[in-house]
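Human: If only I could read backbone structure tokens as easily as an amino acid sequence. Take your time, and here it is.
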Amino acid sequence: MPRPAERAAPSADEIEARVLYKDSLILVIDKPAGLPVHQGPGGGPNLEQSFVHLRYGLPRAPALAHRLDRDTTGCLVLGRHPKALAKLGKIFAGGRAEKVYWAIVHGRPPAEEGRIDLPLAKLTPKRGWRMAVTPDGQPAVTDYKLMGSSADGTISWIEFRPHTGRTHQIRVHAAEIGCPLVGEPIYGRPEGAEPPDEPLHLLARQITLPLYPSREAVEVTAPPPEHMLEALKACGYRG
């Protein structure tokens, strides 16, 4: 399947259809692939442009509580007002937001489950910035679990649980264990190879937030996007 082309910001109906959870503090939306969450230096369409349609009676639009990469899809948390954003900021900064990602990768991991503990730092070579494993980088820890593989073993479905929130953490860590993500344009690709034709196969599957002291944590799950379904089913997914 071809990589998603640059897409327009969702309309009111489209963004409302992507709301997975709503209460007085937060919204969780199902971010589409191929659209940045906010405007970059080059401008262009972005998801924030559609937040005005998600006020639900409040005087201002909700705002991002965290980030997802342009080509990542799934659970994205928004704070509905400044107090909510402050509370969410403490939860994310304190590492109390539990995140689960699903990815389709090339090959199979070295074990059925394990922990990747490799510090990451941002490098800025002439060809463009990227994250890299380096001893003096920031701590980055990701647990992984093999959920299934295709019959020929060429691709696998892996659940990742990051314990830190470094940029491109899952993408780099997956490549470091010999399993670059399907559709990955940067990490694990041979030098000089053409960029992949297919979109990135990475889903922010679930997020759990301890928002309320007297209630259970809020747990929200996003459905797999259409571009990942065929590969997931090949690896045993039956949802």
About this structure: The chain has one domain: 12-234. The CA atoms of residues 10 and 130 lie 29 Å apart.
